[in-house]
Design goal:
about 170 residues
């Protein structure tokens, strides 16, 4: 083999090495993006499930009192949050989900092989507050027939926090 052929063969090997490295890098990036998407979809599912369970609860503690023929606005709870002795997931009304900074660890886990081999738990926190029809994005300073719940879900491998909200009303 002549020197010219040797140089061409060496150039071809170097070019092939660069192509293989580029392909592996692209494949790794695609796998990472796929895993991030899976984690995002699962976090949205966790938030939706949490909201669905909360929406099935009574609007307020006073609503569960069947001896009251009529419920007035003044009868509604002033202090939104769980009653003494209540723990998640055994809440009985919508405003029990006002966690005041408490974080719940969801049992749904996902193993992300690119980050670690151990399961990644999802963390949930939520805030419940009264709202008005005129301004549903701002907490009202008075009791109303509408309560809004803001939910945040995150995990260690998720790029951003999932934020969702819902409104529960009593008519």
């Amino acid at each position: 083999m002549s020197t010219g052929q040797m140089m061409l063969a060496l150039g071809a090997v170097i070019l092939l090495s660069f192509l293989i490295l580029r392909f592996n890098g692209t494949t790794f990036t695609a796998q990472e993006m796929t895993m991030d998407s899976k984690m995002g979809i699962l976090a949205i599912s966790v938030a939706n499930s949490y909201i669905d369970v909360a929406k099935k609860k009574a609007f307020d503690e006073v609503v569960m009192d069947t001896t009251k023929p009529t419920i007035l606005l003044s009868d509604l709870t002033s202090a939104l949050g769980k009653e003494p002795g209540e723990v998640y997931p055994d809440f009985d009304d919508f405003d029990d989900y006002n966690l005041n900074g408490e974080v719940i660890t969801d049992t749904t886990t996902l193993i992300n092989p690119s980050k670690s081999a151990s399961p990644t738990p999802f963390y949930i926190t939520s805030t419940v507050y009264y709202i008005t029809n005129a301004n549903p994005n701002t907490p009202a300073m008075v009791k109303t027939w509408n309560k809004r719940m803001d939910v945040k879900v995150w995990c260690d491998g998720l790029v951003d926090t999932i934020r969702m909200s819902t409104v529960s009303s009593m008519w």
